[in-house]
Structures are given as C-alpha cells and as structure tokens.
Specification:
Layout lengths: L22 H4 L1 E6 L13 H20 L2 E12 L8 E12 L2 E11 L6 E14 L16 H24 L2
Antiparallel strand pairs: 1-3, 2-5, 3-4, 4-5
C-alpha cells in the first residue's frame, strides 16, 4: 500500500507530479518595517538583516514553485545600492528566473520606503540559488518553468548563463 504524504512541503516524489508554473505564479512580495534592533547606532540597517529577508522571500518563491522543501545553495551578485534606515519599510520582490534539474535561480529586488515622505528607493538586488529536496532530504527534480512572454524568456536565458558560471566556479573551487 502506498503511503500518502500530506505535508505540502514534502510531496515531491515519484507519485506526485507538479505542473510547470510561470514566474508570476511563484512570485512573492514581503514587506517588513525596520526597527532599531535591525540597525547600527547610526540608524543604518545591517546588511545581514537585509540578507535574511532576501533569503526568506526567495525561499517562499522556491517552495511555491517546487511545492516541496527547498534550501539555499548560494547567494550571489548581492548589491547594496543605497542604505536602508530605521523606520523605513523594506519591500522585497522575488521571482524565479531559471530552472535546471534540481536547482532554481530566484531574483530579488529590495526597495526602501520612507513612509513619512513616501519616497521609495531601490536599495539592493540579489540572485539566490535553491535546490529542491525530496521527502528524504535529497535533491529532487524541480518543475519546469513556463515562459509566457519576452521578459520571462530573456530572464531565463540570462539565468542559464549565470548558472553555468556558478557551476564552472564551483568545479574550479573543488579542485
């Protein structure tokens, strides 16, 4: 008798087929208020605090897409463009760009809003790679990505180039 796994984060098995999804279907937006505990004495939010939120929103996208557990493998091209300050609202938008075997690339854009003035500023960007895991914690097939428009196709091709670069760098680092 087959055992049915009701945990939605662990349904990725040979008995459960996940349909391909578009980047839009898996996208996520998270909004967080920045407090003094998130910052240095001058009021600048710690980069590590921003990285935590980047990883979190990217993880939401990865799990939405894979409908399984997914873990961070790498974070690269992290750019802190402008500072985020105490009292700002940090808005993070994330979308999946590329899928290959068990891995996927998630792009995150961070924006700070001064809620007193209403001024919004792009403060950072990052690319985060996740791997889909099966119920035993082993890498598993990631569902295909439906490319619905020119932007999706462009980001997919750019993601493929970045992924090839990551794999080349990883091979070089392991020798």
């Amino acid at each position: 008798m087959n055992e049915i796994n009701n945990n939605p984060l662990q349904n990725n098995s040979e008995n459960f087929t996940i349909k391909a999804k578009s980047p839009e279907e898996s996208s996520a937006e998270v909004i967080v208020r920045m407090f003094p505990s998130d910052a240095n004495p001058a009021g600048n939010v710690f980069g590590g605090e921003i990285l935590k939120h980047i990883d979190m929103v990217a993880g939401i996208v990865a799990q939405r897409h894979s409908q399984s557990n997914a873990v961070t493998v790498s974070m690269d091209s992290v750019n802190f463009i402008k500072p985020v300050f105490v009292g700002n609202v940090l808005k993070l938008n994330a979308r999946i760009n590329y899928v290959h075997n068990s891995s996927m690339e998630i792009e995150v854009r961070a924006e700070a809003e001064d809620i007193v003035t209403g001024i919004k500023t792009v403060t950072g960007t990052a690319f985060v790679t996740f791997v889909t895991l099966d119920k035993n914690g082993k890498p598993s097939h990631t569902p295909k990505l439906l490319l619905k428009n020119d932007e999706d196709r462009k980001k997919f091709e750019e993601g493929k180039i970045r992924m090839e670069g990551r794999l080349k760098h990883r091979k070089k680092s392991n020798t």
